[in-house]
Fold this protein.
Amino acid sequence: MAPINVATSLDNLKLERDAVVLYEALASIEKDPVRSAAFERIATNERRHAEIWANKLADAGATVPSSNGVRPRVRFIILVARLFGTKSVADLVKALEGDEEEAYDAQASPEVAAIAADEREHAQIWDRLGSGAATDPRRNGVDAAGRAGSAAEIGERESWHRSGARSGTLRAVIFGVSDGLVSNLSLVMGVAGAAAANPSFIILAGIAGLMAGAFSMAAGEYISMQSQVELFERQIALERAEMEAMPEEEEAELAASYRAKGFAPDEAARIAKRIFEDPQTALDMLVREELGLDPDQLGSPWAAAGGSFIAFAIGAAIPVVPYLVAGGIGATIASLALSLIALFAVGAGVSLLTGRSLLYSGARQLGIGLAASLVTYFIGSLIGVSVTV
């Protein structure tokens, strides 16, 4: 037997033990017996995977550690599932399965290949659970796709494809709360350095920064998203005009796109001709094929603006709160500490979605905010001294 990498095998063992805890928790939370049984089946697979790594470590003479708690990311998923149900964590669990599959793909051995195949199957089980095929014996993905009237209808049914990130809302919210924290913390620290003895100045500056920043962020996001939507709508309108003016040419272009996908020339021409029997369907396919756009997912300027406004205001309020109840150096220290905790929490929260290290993401966000606040506090102190002199 080829020697194993002990450190990698220990990481693999941890991944599988965390997965066992996750799926056992999901099985206990789920009320639907069919879904619960599916989670139990996956937990059994993960338990078998953990035993494989434990045995390989023992055979290599390495110490097999006892189970000692799960990662924060897994705890977060279990908490969300308890609060909102197992369906609400489908995307998070599938992302976790994807991370495990990527980790195993980087390792080469027959055992790893078999485990990676199991992880892919687990993701497929989640797909079937999402479509209802696993809970309704009369339903399956093939039948549902056969009954669908359009690709958009399938996309609506497959909720795991939908995300605020596609429309820009999630990006705006994350950027908003982070920017609110960093910018208003820097502002508050700068004013505190210059006028620590006048907490009313700090409160005024903090609230002014909150309101100005929130409206600026909302306006910027609205204009940005609206301009993007208008650009996309203009491109779609031009494509519609081309189709009306030159239908034969546009049909030939659609056929060419199918030839590029591997269809035979006669098949591609036949498919394009059939599609062009319905002008709306033809336009939809041309927009998707030529422009790479989904007409149903152009984004919402109002959602991006509203999310950005609220997120920035929440982030910007945190550095100001301590000054509403106290003053002096104590309020400054409390403001900095509270803001740094919030910055770390924002970074850690993002890691739960991206799969990056919680400590790395949190520390990175904290470091950026701390550096900005220290610089502005130092500059504010210099300005305050020069004014008094």
In short: The chain has a mean pLDDT of 79. DSSP finds 17 helices and no strands in the chain.
